[in-house]
Every structure is written in C-alpha cells, then in structure tokens.
Amino acid sequence: MSTTASNVSDSTKRAQETVFADQFSWGDRIIAYAPALSLLALCILFSLTTNTFFTIRNLLNVIDQLTVLGIMALGMTAVIVIGGIDLSVGSILALSMMVMGWLSNVAGIPMSFAIIAALLTGALCGMTSGLLVTRANLPAFIATLAVMSIARGLANMVTDGTQIVGYVEWFSELSINRYFGFISVTVALFLVLTAIAFVFMKYRSGGRALYAIGGNSEVARLAGIPVKRVTVLVYTVCGVLAGLAGVVMSTRLDSSQPSGGLGYELDTIAAVVIGGASLSGGVGSIWGTLMGVLTIGVLRNGLNLLGVSPFVQQVVIGLVIVMAVAVDSNKRKIR
User: Fold this and answer.
1) What pLDDT digit, counting tens, does each position of 40-74 carry?
2) CA separation (Å) from 8 to 4, 14, 132?
3) Residue 212 and residue 210: Cα distance in Å, rounded?
4) Alpha-carbon distance 88 to 79, whole Å?
5) Contact yes or no for 115/129 (Cβ under 8 A)
6) Can you tell me the distance from the alpha carbon of 67 to that of 248, in angstroms, rounded to the nearest whole number?
7) What backbone torsions phi and psi does residue 275 show, to the nearest 5 degrees?
8) CB atoms within 10 A of CB 301
9) What are phi and psi of 255, to 5 degrees?
10) Fewer CB near the last or first residue (10 Å), C or N of the chain?
C-alpha cells in the first residue's frame, strides 16, 4: 500500500513540475517577444487613431528620425550587457559634432578629415570612461557622469556656446537624398552597423565574451577573458558610435550645436532596456535594442500626430521604462 502511495505521489510531483516548467517556458517566450509585441500593438493603435501614421511619408520620417538614437543604442547595448552604463553619450555627441564643425568651417580642414576627428574625439571620451572604470575603479555611473559634464563643457567652449551653421552640400545630402526612393545614406549606415553588431553579439566569440563579463566578471576573468581590456574597448566603441551619431545629426540639421544630444543618454538607455536588456548585465540583444529604438520612435511619432504635449510624452516614455524594468526584475525573481 505504501509503495503504491509513494508511486502516486512521485507521479503527481512530476506532473506538477512539468506544468510549472511549461508555464515558465511560456512566460519566458512571452517576455522574449515582448518588445516586438509592444511595437506591433503601438502600430495598430496609432493606425486606428490617426489617418497619417501608416503613410509611406510618415514611416520614412520615423526611420530618418531614429538613426541618431539607433546608432548610439548599438554601443549602449554592449555597455549594458557587460553590466555597465554610459551617461555621457549625449555630451560626447555634442562635443564630436562641435569639433567637426570647428575644424571644417573655422579651421578650413576638409570635411572628410573633420569627420575622422569627430570619431576620434568620441573614441577618446569613451576610452576615458573605460579607464576610469577599470583603472581608477570608479563606478560606471560616476565615471560616465564625470565625462558627461566634461564633454558638455568642452562642447560649449569650442565656440563659446554658439552654433556652427552651413556645411558643404554633399555632407548635408547624406541624410536628404533617398536612393531607390526610400533610403538615405545615413539610414543605410545605421542598418549596416546594426547588421554587423547583430552578427558580432550573437555569433562571434567576442560577443559571447561580453555576456560572460556581464554574467560574472570574476568567472570570466578566470576563464581567460581580459575583462579590463574588453571593458575599455566596449566604452571606446560606444564613444565612437556617439561621435558618429553627432556627425549624422549634423547632416540632418546642417549645423553643429553645443546643446545637441541633450537628454539623449536617457533615451538611449531606455531603448536598450525596453528591448529586453537587463541593467544587472548579461542580458540583451541587438534585435531587442532595434525593437526598443523603433518603439520609442513610433511612440513619439504617434503622440505627435495625436497632438499630445511633449511634456506628456516624457511622462508616457517614463512609464514605459518603468514597465520594462519591472518586467526584467520579475523575470529574474522567477528564475
């Protein structure tokens, strides 16, 4: 009798474990597809509430507006995956575009060399953040906050706070001319960078090393991964992409402004978090980040079409960030 009861008990226990496993499996699947599902829901909502959202012109406008944020978000994805954070990307954007503008329009240096100088400026700022984190042992929040303040101050010092206006024609046309009727050079650049980042993060050993560092940096070090060197490199690449974003913004505005990129660091972090990345590190993907970038772009565009105040839009995006972080926290608790 006792043997039979024990067998029934074991069978019941295994059945319950199977049910719970299935529930968690479905829950994980829903969470994995949450960024894409939320983007789809927003598209349906705005297509039903506005007459112009699903027009070709508006959709192209959304994509054009996302290039700057999207390029910065690629670098931020790697930073957050290794368990870091970068608050300086908006200020690096401003400093890089001001350096480029001063060199080309004041110093008379050819635009191509000025663009390279902008990228090098971003690299130097990013490397500084990485060294502060790895060599000075500062928390990433404090290190990048310091670089943010320094870079913004330098951006204003370049021209004493005044903007630089008017670039050579070919430079401005990079974001204006549409090839094949729908794609500009700047959008094509963003798509190419996204594809490269996706392949690197998902299929290359270097990308897998970033997840290992974010999961447990000490275990990654013992496994032979040069954690400090990789960390500096990740922040440097993030800085380069912020500098490139400054160049792209200049093509759209046909000017360089020391106030450029103000608040973009928060939007960049938000895009990565909405895309499913964990602020504790070890979790995140380029695909998710792309969904997060599109979500922010579609949300702002749709709210603009509905005539919603920009102040209300900030509140809405803040609530979206809270929900994204709450989902990540609950997911980790379940596991």
Assistant:
1) 888 898 988 888 888 888 888 888 889 999 999 99
2) 6, 10, 61
3) 5
4) 12
5) no
6) 8
7) -75, 0
8) 21
9) -165, 165
10) N
